[in-house]
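Homework help board

Subject: predicted structure for assignment chain

Our instructor gave us this sequence and asked us to write out the predicted structure in token form, then describe one feature. I got the tokens but I'm not sure how to describe them. Can anyone check?
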Amino acid sequence: MHEDEPRTPSGGEWIAFRSAPGQAAPPPDEAPLEAGAIVEAGLAELPEPIRTEDVRRRLVLYVERLLDTNTRINLVSRRGTTHHVARFVRESLFLASILHQDRSRIPGGAPRLLDLGSGGGFPGVVLKIALPDVEVQLVEGTRKKAAFLAEVATALDLPGMSVLWGRSEQIARLGGRDAAPRFDWVTGKALGTLVESCRLAAPFLVSGGVHWTFKGAACEAELAQAGGYFRQAGLAPFVLEPIPGQQESYIVGVQKHRRGR
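My token output:
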């Protein structure tokens, strides 16, 4: 995280909504980017202590495998693919920097993270690479994508990362409120509105756990609309961070305070 960016709070303080310093997305027909360039740009978001050569190496291997597999399986949009991947890597590493700070709040050993709707691995795989001691469970409803994620876990030697093939909604229903495994963090990208995203994540959160998701221009409106649901479900806004270099792009953290109805 850059020094001029706001720091993630150690408690439940709310960071006021504000505009992020914007940068227009590159045109989809712009020249493709190399895996190394994609990774180097994203690594700028990681704090120096965890920006290791091993993290860099694994990220490059992951991006190379993702781009190669994407020619056969649609993991990421095939129009302007490398620019989409560059944005997703950077967003995921920015979230990793926030989680690196937030882990001091979590008692015990390594945090447990559940990533819902992992797709091609954003943010779950990137978070596992950047925070290797975190236990990560990926959930993906498309069989081919789930198989790709399992191959990545093996090829990149990522112990403590597992893949579950299934839809987030089904897993939440099957597990039930009391039987579902509990995680310190639940992440997800493109899971619907903030209320829909939180409904999927909440059954899996420990008390004090945080659901982290990515939001765009509708973020402020979705936060306002979610107020009633938050009160009913025992949730509260925890962190709102604009993503550097992206216009109207934010990471939102919603914390679980008590058992919802």
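Reply (TA_rk): Your tokens look well-formed. For the description, you could write something like this. Strands lie at 112-116, 135-140, 161-165, 183-188, 205-215, 235-242, 250-256. That's the kind of observation they're looking for.
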